[in-house]
Specification:
Layout lengths: L1 E7 L5 H19 L2 E6 L4 H7 L5 H8 L3 E4 L20 H11 L4 E7 L12 H4 L4 E7 L9 E6 L2 E6 L5 H16 L4 E6 L5 H14 L6 E6 H10 L6 E4 L1 H14 L9 E3 L5 E3 L18 H13 L4 H16 L2 E2 L9 E2 L2 H14 L4
Parallel strand pairs: 1-2, 1-3, 3-12, 5-10, 8-9, 8-10, 13-14
Antiparallel strand pairs: 4-5, 4-11, 6-7, 11-12
The chain binds nicotinamide-adenine-dinucleotide, 3-isopropylmalic acid (IPM) and manganese (II) ion (MN).
């Protein structure tokens, strides 16, 4: 089989981590005799440098012709990068939001799973970790504060800025359905996170979750306020199966969840619409502080590539092979600096990619 994959190398550590994910995909291609055609696409800072804008119609058009797109992270250091001298709509992040909206990628799946081998890298106490945790955060990605009306007005009393948190029933319902469908294939529990004690949009969110739950009687729905959820994530992470929440809450909670898996460098993501297409990217940013040093953890990107194989290309056994390779390398004690523990062997970004590719090529196919 042949597949066309768009590659967005991105900014900062983006090119370093995407190279390693491509190394792993090349090993998959070699072993399982599937063909991947790659097309490089521009987004974010790299697109500003090449085309003057963070997202072009050409990138959208090229992405639509791919089976899936794998991307590193975009953006730079807001204090030092010239990209942040531009008006907000021309900055790298606007490109990312633009491609999500243009391709209607409303469901952002961010799995937070604690590998047995990374218990030492998890900052939580052993009694809290218990038997580990395995949750899927479903973050609504094309609505809420990110896409509501925003403006700054100037009056005699000084400037006033407004961001609008807006959701329609339809936007909430399609996200709810996705969360329930995912829960059905897991431990059949959905925790819907909102701020219904204060926000009108959250009260609508909660009502639509309740209504949708009627179509999934085999799945248990519970509601949790977002401030409590932030606390529960570090008090008892094992309680969560599927967590569904609006855009901003999901952004913040998924960074928190990433850290309890050992590092933000471990958390992959898939941004999906109603088709097979998906945009796959690590949940972390472009980490300008460590860019170019060959020390970034490429595993979130490699695991995003595994999600791409499974969800967009239907290559289940190939996806499982990548996940097994990650597990094996961790079991053998190899760690990038962010997940390093006593007694382990520290490796660079590229060495981690090499180890994964080698493991894949010698691993028994299942
Ligand atoms: P960040 O996630 O880039 O970095 C936060 C911290 O985590 C830093 O100390 C960084 O070194 C570390 N880190 C991140 N990824 C790592 C990895 N793979 N391995 C080891 N350490 C890693 O967040 P930030 O510093 O707030 O943002 C930097 C830039 O990235 C900003 O321009 C922001 O807008 C952008 N950003 C992009 C995306 C994306 O493209 N999806 C996501 C988040 C942030
Ligand atoms: C993420 C990032 C983006 C977001 C930024 C870069 C716009 O933080 O993918 O988590 O807030 O969605
Ligand atoms: Mn984020």
């Amino acid at each position: 089989m042949k597949y066309k994959i768009g590659l967005i190398h991105g900014d900062g550590i983006g090119p370093e981590i995407v190279s390693e994910a491509k190394k792993v995909l090349d090993a998959v291609s070699e072993k399982y005799k599937v063909t991947f055609y790659y097309q490089n696409l521009l987004l974010g800072g790299a697109s500003i440098d090449a085309c003057g804008v963070p997202l072009t119609d050409e990138t959208i058009c090229q992405a639509k012709q791919c089976n899936a797109v794998l991307m590193g992270s975009i953006g730079g250091d807001a204090m030092t990068s010239p990209w942040y001298q531009l008006e907000p709509s021309k900055r790298p992040e606007a490109g990312l939001l633009g491609i999500r909206k243009s391709l209607n990628l409303f469901a952002n799946l961010r799995p937070a799973y604690l590998y047995e081998e990374l218990k030492d890298a998890c900052p939580l106490k052993e009694k809290i970790i218990g038997n580990g945790f395995d949750m899927m955060i479903v973050r609504e990605l094309t609505g809420g504060l990110y896409f509501g009306e925003k403006k700054t007005t100037e009056t005699d009393g000084g400037k006033t800025a407004v961001d609008t948190l807006i959701y329609s029933e339809d936007e909430i319902r399609r996200t709810a359905k996705r969360a329930f469908a995912i829960a059905r294939k897991r431990r059949k529990k959905v925790t819907s996170v909102d701020k219904a004690n204060v926000l009108e949009s959250s009260r609508l969110w909660r009502a639509v979750m309740e209504e949708t739950a009627k179509d999934y009687p085999d799945v248990t729905l519970e509601h949790m306020l977002v401030d409590n959820c932030a606390m529960q994530l570090v008090a008892n992470p094992g309680q969560f199966d599927v967590v569904v929440t609006e855009n901003t809450f999901g952004d913040i909670l998924s960074d928190e969840a990433s850290m309890i898996t050992g590092s933000i460098g471990m958390l992959p993501s898939a941004s999906l619409n109603e088709t097979k297409f998906g945009l796959y990217e690590p949940s972390h940013g472009s980490a300008p502080d460590i860019a170019g040093k060959n020390i970034a953890n490429p595993l979130a990107t490699v695991l995003s590539a595994a999600m791409m194989l499974r969800f967009s290309l239907d290559l289940d056994k190939e996806a499982a092979a990548v996940e097994r390779a990650v597990e094996k390398v961790l079991k053998e004690g190899y760690r990038t600096p962010d997940i390093m523990s006593k007694g382990c062997k520290e490796v660079s970004t590229s060495e981690m990619g090499d180890l994964l590719a080698e493991n894949l090529s010698v691993m028994q196919a299942v």
